[in-house]
Specification:
Largest interface: A-B, 55 and 55 residues
Order of helices and strands of chain A: HHHHHHHHHHH
Helix content of chain A: over 70%
CATH architecture of the largest domain in chain A: Orthogonal Bundle
Oligomer: homodimer
Strand content of chain A: under 5%
CATH class of the largest domain in chain A: Mainly Alpha
Number of strands of chain A: 0
Structural class of chain A: mainly alpha
Distance between the termini of chain A: 71 Å
CATH superfamily of the largest domain in chain A: Tetracycline Repressor, domain 2
Number of domains of chain A: 2
Chain lengths: 211, 211
DNA sequence: GTCTATACGAGGATAGAC
DNA sequence: GTCTATCCTCGTATAGAC
């Protein structure tokens, strides 16, 4: 194998797999497992369909690989947050902010997670990977409740509702944009920042105890 | 045409269309426009594929018809609520409760709306139909803010976030069920009621002004 | 208004050369 | 490890009989 080829990634196994995964991520984000077309993926990679089946066995295998990489990424974001600040509110703000940033800057993954939920009913990821995102949030809410800083509430429902608030704007941005004045780009830096501020305040207000 | 045939709905145009729409609703809820298969729809109706194309021209036409019916239904729910109660909080509680009941008891429509957002980017419904659901909520929030009963906030973002909270639980129920103790059925009457209570309290707390 | 048969293209997957 | 050619099923859509 020539060095030039390796540099260009043309005959480098890992580089090729990565390129396929990137292209697949885009395509699965468009239509989910069912809607994605393998030729579309192949087309975007610059390689051929055969490479997909060679490296990932079949469409399902590719999907699983995409999903695993996506979950790992999201997991890293959640686990990078310090959840033991003295005030649970501060940790919650940090966690939600990080989640919103990640959701907003990786729209493909956000769409894929939503598809996985409604289309495949979570079949393709383990309970562990889902829990790794929710459990820190749930634990944080529990701590706030027992500290008397948060309302009495069911932390599971609250956590799910919080995640829902974080992702819904981004899942439906093309859909709801007409609510704003014409031409408003919901994914612009300014709008994303505004959404973050609004969502955080709404989430905090929703769980905080005002006594 | 014999009366018996008409009674059984076998040669009744409207009855047949309705049966197709019902079956299509189920199928589109499974995989969206892209993922739905016309044979699956035909199979569920008891009629044949040809009937679908006869009555609705093509798959897209059928999808549009399903969506229109769905939007009309949701619109009726929203418009049935009295949004001018003296206390905006009371109207908001009523609106959210009605929305949650409708979302939870028509899961197919809920999934279809989500698909329409992420898969088709709202292409298949008019701006008007979307607005008809959001605008009453937005107006209600505006009233609450100007009355000094709700926090200072952007009513558009808040409305989107509220809808997100209402639908996310139901969109991802199969996905998140492992967060609860094994065997918990998130769609049971009890869990739906609990989710409604929790969501309403979280939503109200999220917008209310505690001065 | 409904059914059967079928055209035809799309899409997932494989074989085998290089 | 990569490419070309190909197979074959599935799925949309139509034609035409009843």
């Amino acid at each position: 194998m020539g060095v030039e080829e390796k540099k260009a990634g043309l005959r480098d196994k890992e580089a090729t797999k990565c390129r396929i995964l990137d292209a697949a991520e885009e395509e699965f984000a468009r239509g989910g497992l069912m809607g994605a077309r393998t030729d579309a993926i192949a087309c975007k990679t610059g390689t051929t369909k055969s490479m997909i089946f060679y490296h990932f066995r079949d469409k399902e295998g590719l999907y699983q690989a995409v999903l695993e990489r996506a979950v790992a990424r999201r997991m890293r974001v959640v686990q990078s947050i310090d959840l033991h600040a003295p005030e649970p509110e501060d940790s919650l703000r940090a966690l939600v902010a990080a989640l919103l940033d990640d959701v907003g800057s990786h729209l493909n993954l956000t769409a894929i997670f939503m598809y996985e939920a409604i289309q495949n009913k979570g079949k393709y990821y383990s309970e562990i990977s889902l829990a790794s995102v929710y459990v820190p949030l749930i634990d944080l809410l529990k701590r706030g409740i027992s500290d008397g800083k948060f309302r009495e509430m069911d932390p599971l429902h609250a956590a799910v509702n919080i995640v829902g608030m974080c992702v819904f704007y981004y899942c439906s941005h093309e859909n709801i944009k007409h609510l704003w004045s014409p031409g408003t780009e919901l994914l612009s830096k300014e709008m994303r920042e505004q959404h973050k501020r609004e969502a955080i305040e709404q989430i905090i207000a929703g769980v905080k105890k005002f006594s």
